[in-house]
Protein 1
Amino acid sequence: MSYNNYLDADAAWNCVCEFNKPTCVIVKHTNPCGVASRDDIIEAYRLAVKADPVSAFGGIVAFNIEVDEALAKDIREFRSPTDGETRMFYEIVVAPKYSKKGLEILRGKSKTLRILEARKNDKGKLSLRQVGGGWLAQDSDDLTPKDIQFNVVSEKAPQESELGDAEFAWLCVKHVKSNAIVIAKNNCMLGMGSGQPNRLESLRIALRKAGDEVKGAALASDAFFPFAWKDAVEEACESGIGVIAEPGGSIRDGDAIDCCNKYGVSLLFTNVRHFRH
């Protein structure tokens, strides 16, 4: 296990632990490139790969339930959706536990595959970061949608399914490096944009990855849309996004609300930002 292996495994595990349903998270360079929740964990795994199969190759896969024989076989044999032939390769698999047979199957997949067992982290811990001459400390970002009251600020209120998509996207974007945008629908991440100094560029990356599936999907932003609101919010609305979840708090909030009303898009304010650096 290398330094980067530990960082990526920790990022994948922290993300997958956010979800109550059986969930698969695939991480590359500490950013989730595929996230999906389903009653059938194999379906969740395949959807997570499908979200970005190129990035998923060589990534870290995390599950929040036991890896049994059936799931282990699918991890070993599943072919990349890009060509239907290339067997998916991963650096690490992390899960709360493994069945005896599942562990045997994974050990036979690759000599270099690291198989990790982890337990859910406790809430309330400090987040530490070393800087020149000292350390920075802050409370961990432990808030869930249950802790946050989404405030509907648009004329159009989201349907129940749209609200669920917004909550899912909001949980995902929490684990994406700022500036972060996540697009999700039906408990599946369709596209994400990360690490761009310009939020509009993160949006465009997420839209490109989501493709035609963006229609009616939820979009979550880890911070408010500042002066780029006209380009970013309008571009999101024109693409077919159904609901947007963002912290709010910008002096241009009124303009963003007007834009969503113009296109009939639901806009939710969380009053809490993520900002992962």
Note: The CA atoms of residues 24 and 45 lie 5 Å apart.
Protein 2
Amino acid sequence: MYQRNKKDLQKSWFRSISFIILCLPFTLLSCDDAEHKKDDQVKSFYDVRGFVEGQIILMNNERPEVSKTVSMGDEKNQVSAKDVDWKKELELFLQADINKPAYRLSYTTQKPDSFTTIYAVKPGEQQLPVHYLKVIVDSINQAPTCISAVLKSENKLYQSEKNIELNCVVNNTGSRIVSYKITGYQKLATMDKNPFAVKAEVHY
């Protein structure tokens, strides 16, 4: 009985912390979703949303197990689960997509090599939520092996930074997410910075 209650408490704590980490201001998300619907065809940058949405469908069908360590402040919790809502789990990676009409002239593009593309927000556009996005693809299928981004949000009451990274393996059927991590902090105007970290491995 004690072990069962302990597991239930851990899952409840895990869900609460995950919700806090994934939250962005509601108005920001509403605008982003609306712009995405308007811009369903034209892709000025790498289609992060399309890739992640494809992975969500695969993972909801295949139901791989995820092992996750969540840290917030001095507290740390580990949990494993197969019953995962992957759309909610990968929400931050959907938010890293920059294919929105208002963003077309807001980013510089660099290609340090033939497999890597880096998008960085231009000076004067610091209010945008995605400040940096890097996509690395494999040499054969041009499928993503790593997607990383920096997301920032700030107003008079709230400040946050999230550094996210998605790692994939590529085979003859395409990419599969094998791990991901989120690190950063949240800060309310009247409080100190609250650091957090999420590290997860996916087992098929």
Note: Residues 2-203 form one domain.
Protein 3
Amino acid sequence: MSDFNFLECPNCGGHDFVEIGPRRQQCAYCGAVMTTPEEAEAQAPTVTCPHCGFENERGAAYCNNCGQPLAAWPPPPRKKLDLALASLIVTIVTTFFIPIPFIGPAVGLYLGYKALRKTRAGGGQSSKKLAQVAIAVAWVAMLLPVCALSASAGVHTARSIYEWLRTLFHFLLSGS
């Protein structure tokens, strides 16, 4: 009487009863050679530790000899908030701490639009939102002196400042 073993195919995952003997049995579903769990364990590739050279079992995350990680984990992705954050910080700091109107917010606008252009080319949603907030804050900071001047100097002065701001805005958008 023959002995049978219930095996799982390493190729397709199919299960089958195969006769135990010297002849290799093939999977009835895909034709791959069936192996016993003991044979599969013996054939499993090992992972060499890059630190000490010890042969570890396949799938091990850390070396069983020295404890070092076996795979070089990629560093976490760095967020691309640098330019957008710089725009926001420059705008806020220069608006409240430098008494020259328009200069700080103009730099903040330039950096904000540059950051927005970079995020459209492949940045994340969070940096896009931050760039949009930085641009909005810079525009408000640009308009604060305009509102103060228009209240004290009249409509004609406010109109000329508006034209100057419009020209600056077009200059910043063109990237020149």
Note: Residues 45-73 form one domain.
